């Protein structure tokens, strides 16, 4: 347990979006506990340091969280604020997600240079920027003619690259754009039938030490139960499939009272094979629903697709290392 009885230290990445998220949590904590001082400590992660290599070559899992989690285990910070989609489903021993905040918009956003308002309207062979294998696979399924190019950097950098003409269009999470005040830059919000989002997209995960009773009790008010049910189901699906944030697996769960529905897909890297499933049940059984839809996907051919994806990914990473 932390010895700083009247102080909480939040570990955060240094990007504008990460700091917006951490400052938002900081503000909520101060409102709830006005007698407590809340500080933010910026920690640079592997994903922040290496910007000239695609995320798929880096390996994906934990590249935006490892150094922050190490600081928490060492007692240097009390909690961490993550975009939940960046947080691996398997956490280091002694750490857990103590709270999941209410979701922002879960959808992906299309931003275009010449005013197109849909993926269909993009010209033949248009250059589209995204480093997400999930987005790339779905785009290739929709428009195999598009040229898909890696896109790294913070939101400002990505918007600048689009404006400079390095891309005809880029795809980013709507949640981050809205949080940073860039909603007016969005050309189209992509329908879930067109582009399923990443696991946990739009939600923030508050990571803490399991045995730190003070911090865990302080963060409970941030929990949004419907979002928690939704993301528990999505993360259970991802865990059952053995995937990370850089695997073409997508899902969206929707909580409606006591009911929960979830739809998901697994796609091949070239977009020629896409397996989709839907399932619904009781929200209180979110974990089981996530496992069930994963099992349905695997039985319908997703196992073969994932074997090929993991083999290709390992070959790419081996090449990058060598």
Number of DSSP-assigned strands: 13
CATH level 3 topology of the largest domain: D-Maltodextrin-Binding Protein, domain 2
Strand % is 15-25%
> In total, how many domains does the architecture comprise?
3
CATH class of the largest domain: Alpha Beta
Radius of gyration: 19 Å
Question: Architecture of the largest domain, CATH level 2?
Answer: 3-Layer(aba) Sandwich
Oligomer: single chain
Helical residue percent band: 25-40%
- Provide mean pLDDT, rounded: 90
Strand order of the largest sheet: 2-1-3-10-4
Biggest β-sheet: count, sense, barrel? 5 strands, mixed
Specify the CATH homologous superfamily of the largest domain.
Periplasmic binding protein-like II
- How would you describe the shape? globular
- Elements, N to C (H/E): EHEHHHEEEEHEHEHEEHHEEEH
Total helices: the number is 10
Describe this structure in words.
There is one protein chain. The protein is of the alpha/beta class and 322 residues long. The protein has 3 domains: 1-102 and 203-223, D-Maltodextrin-Binding Protein, domain 2 (3-Layer(aba) Sandwich); 108-189, D-Maltodextrin-Binding Protein, domain 2; 225-322, Porphobilinogen deaminase, C-terminal domain (Double Stranded RNA Binding Domain, 2-Layer Sandwich), CATH 3.30.160.40. 37% of the residues lie in helices and 23% in strands. The protein is built from 10 helices and 13 strands. The strands form 3 sheets. It has a 5-stranded mixed β-sheet with strand order 2-1-3-10-4, sandwiched between helices. Strand 6, helix 5 (133-142) and strand 7 (147-149) form a beta-alpha-beta unit. Helix 9 crosses helix 10 (286-321). It starts with 6 loop residues before the first strand and ends with a helix. Residues 51-55 and 315-322 have low confidence and may be disordered.
